[in-house]
């Protein structure tokens, strides 16, 4: 079982670096081959602390019609045709992904890739333990069933979907598989403005699909303190996927809203700190509070000296720290009792002083 699968089952935080096809631009920038760039990005992501790296496996001819319009920020990515954009980044095939999967195993990071056609779904199967289904294929029910029927855990993004579409996609998976299923809140805006992140949908997904794991696929620009991801985690997204780059200033495609290695470290450290803060959900007191529980609470105290044999009246008593005597909550038990011995002024009243 892969580390990613273990975390899906256990509920531990899992961070997936969506390398996608960003390695092509890194290769051009650094004067290296795409394979060298892809491996470099896997290594940098692993060293920064991700659970898994993810690629996108497609061929432009099987993914988009030649007249498919863009839906991204064209001031960042100037290509206005989906087909033309995908064609620039589709040279890898089965041999390349097999090499990448082997390299990931060697360095100790989980490998996976989103398949965008049936052939890719087939040849990727022995390379990865988890299938990722893109938001763009949420209504592609035959393709969802085909991948889910392979019996592996499925991570499925639900960007730009309504509730009925989500239910239909979940039902498609469940018709053929009872393996773990993760639904990822996602907003298909590239980049997603912070005010459009709608992270409360994570809690809504948890309520609507209580038997599923809920995650978040983030397209916001990284913020300085990883607040977007930390907030998503607090709301219940324990699987987070975010695009990954080595240079956020690169133009085009998925660099401008991606995390880099420093962002990864901030996210991992930030979520670990949040997890420490969240602690236990038990409504009892902590053992670390034992001293404060005893000393910061109040006891019934003699307001003035009370001679032995005196019947205790309310006016003789007050309430002060520490809480080592009789609790003020037992006041009615004390009033009307007879002092068994002299009780000095300001004494914390114990049970034996009043015959309890």
Low-confidence stretches: none
Proportion in β-strands = 5-15%
Shape-level CATH architecture of the largest domain: Alpha-Beta Barrel
- CATH H level, superfamily name of the largest domain: Aldolase class I
Q: Helical segment tally?
A: 14
Structural class: alpha/beta
Could you give the order of the helices and strands?
Answer: HEHHEHHHEHEHEHEHEHEHHEEH
Instruction: Give the integer mean of the pLDDT values.
Output: 93
Shape: elongated
Distance between the termini: 62 Å
What fold name stands as the CATH topology of the largest domain?
TIM Barrel
Biggest β-sheet: strands ordered side by side in the sheet: 3-2-1-8-7-6-5-4
The radius of gyration is 30 Å
Count the strands?
A: 10
CATH class of the largest domain: Alpha Beta
Largest sheet at a glance? 8 strands, parallel
Q: What's the helical proportion of residues? A: 25-40%
């Amino acid at each position: 079982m892969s580390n990613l699968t273990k975390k899906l089952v256990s509920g531990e935080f899992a961070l997936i670096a969506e390398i996608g096809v960003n390695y092509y631009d890194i290769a051009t920038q650094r004067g290296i081959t795409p394979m060298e760039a892809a491996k470099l990005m896997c290594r940098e992501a692993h060293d920064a602390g991700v659970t898994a790296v993810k690629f996108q496996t497609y061929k432009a001819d099987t993914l988009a019609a030649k007249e498919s319009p863009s839906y991204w920020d064209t001031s960042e990515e100037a290509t206005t045709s989906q087909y033309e954009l995908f064609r620039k980044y589709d040279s890898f095939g089965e041999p390349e992904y097999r090499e990448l999967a082997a390299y990931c195993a060697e360095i100790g990071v989980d490998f996976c890739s989103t398949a965008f056609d049936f052939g890719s779904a087939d040849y990727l199967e022995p390379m990865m333990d988890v299938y990722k289904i893109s938001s763009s294929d949420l209504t592609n029910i035959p393709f969802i069933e085909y991948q889910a029927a392979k019996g592996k855990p499925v991570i499925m993004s639900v960007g730009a979907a309504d509730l009925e579409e989500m239910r239909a996609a979940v039902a498609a998976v469940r018709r053929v598989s009872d393996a773990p299923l993760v639904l990822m809140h996602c907003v298909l805006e590239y980049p997603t403005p912070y005010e459009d992140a709608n992270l409360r949908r994570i809690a809504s997904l948890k309520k609507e699909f209580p038997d599923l794991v809920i995650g978040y696929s983030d397209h916001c620009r990284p913020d300085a303190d990883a607040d977007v991801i930390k907030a998503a985690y607090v709301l219940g997204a324990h699987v987070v996927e975010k695009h990954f780059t080595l240079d956020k200033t690169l133009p085009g495609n998925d660099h401008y809203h991606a995390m880099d290695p420093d962002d990864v470290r901030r996210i991992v450290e930030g979520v670990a700190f949040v997890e420490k803060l969240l602690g236990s959900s038990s409504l009892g007191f902590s053992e670390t509070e034992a001293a404060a529980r005893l000393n910061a609470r109040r006891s019934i105290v003699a307001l003035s000296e009370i001679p032995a044999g005196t019947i205790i009246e309310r006016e003789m008593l007050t309430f002060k720290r520490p809480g080592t005597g009789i609790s003020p909550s037992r006041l009615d038990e004390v009033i009307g009792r007879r002092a068994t011995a002299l009780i000095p002024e300001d004494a914390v009243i114990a049970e034996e002083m009043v015959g309890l």
